[in-house]
Amino acid sequence: MNNETIAILIPCYNEALTIKKVINDFQKELPEADIYVYDNNSTDDTYEIALKEGVIVRKEPRQGKGNVIRQMFFDIEADYYLMVDGDDTYPAEHAHEMINSLREGKADMVIGDRLSNGTYFDENKRAFHDFGNNLVKNSINRLYKADIKDVMTGYRGFNRIFVKSFPVMSSGFQIETEFTIHALDKRFKLVEIPIDYRDRPEGSESKLDTFSDGTKVLLTIMKMCKDYKPMLFFTSLSIIFFLLGLICGIPVINEFFHTGFITKVPSSILASGLMIFGLLLLVTGLILDTVVTNTKKEYELNLHRLYIEKNYKEKL
Q1: Contact call for residues 241 and 278 (beta carbons, < 8 A)
Q2: What is the pLDDT of residues 9-54, one digit of tens each?
Q3: Which of helix, strand or coil describes residue 152?
């Protein structure tokens, strides 16, 4: 344990008002950790302020939190990683409990749960955020038969295996949703730790746009449903088109049984087209489900190699 390394990851964009306090809080709580601040094209003094605090500061020119996290995961080597926003909404005091869950092997990813103790709802005054959080949370929980309380928190801990095997596909704030879906889909161990949440200090503005970013997150969920559970996705679409085909085709079939003729030619063509398209969607789902199953097998083998590598290094 004496040789273990901890990295605090702080992605930042225009956080001059709060970045010093965030850095100082984590320096106090985890003095042994290396703190990395990645500045994402800030137009204020975020970069300069962070530099003065004696931490590792780098610039990421590609805009978007997903791009920043991607580069962080490429660059930074550590045993345990703690990711936190630079807006001073997440208390550093919970860092010990989060790191301990990783250290003891209880979790591959620790989620700082803002919602369970009610502080998020008390502090956050932004319209529709509660609705959006619940919509995303319930969608993912139904999709994976899980019971995750906070899907979109920016306060998370990871072990090395998770970080080095995580493919970052999102460029923006959808990355939070991607973390959760990936962990559930790949059967990583998850632990949620209730944390206190405090709203941004006066003068500090959120970079999130309720409707724009909410739409992106929902599209991400749909895309990941297609990518991770293609059978469910394409079967659902197939059923919709089969039902539409039946609605258009029932009057045609009814006419044929009564008269022996078909006069509703456009309806019969439309019904046939919808049925054929529904069948194609079903076949697509079957094929892609086989592809995804084989991809999961390959991922598991690569994960196994990472564990072997980790155990070998620990013995040296």
Answers
A1: yes
A2: 999 999 999 999 999 999 999 999 999 999 999 999 999 999 999 9
A3: coil
Distance CA 22, CA 28 (A): 10
Q: What is the b/e burial string over 102-112, where b = at least 16 CB atoms within 10 angstroms of the residue's CB?
A: bbeeebbbbbb
Q: Using one digit for the tens of pLDDT, what is the confidence trace for 56-84? A: 999 999 999 999 999 999 999 999 999 99
Tell whether the torsion through CA atoms of 204, 136, 64 and 67 is positive or negative.
positive
Helical H segments across 11-123, by residue range? 19-29, 46-52, 65-75, 95-103, 119-123
DSSP SS3 for 112: strand
Provide the pairing of β-strand 34-39 with 56-59.
parallel
**CA distance linking residue 95 with residue 250, whole number of Å:** 62
Q: What is the pTM for the complete model shown?
A: 0.82
Tell me how many helices (H) and strands (E) the chain has: 11, 7
Query: What would you report as the CA-atom Rg of the chain, rounded to the nearest whole angstrom?
Result: 24
- Closest by CA position to 99, among listed 87, 114, 84, 118: 84
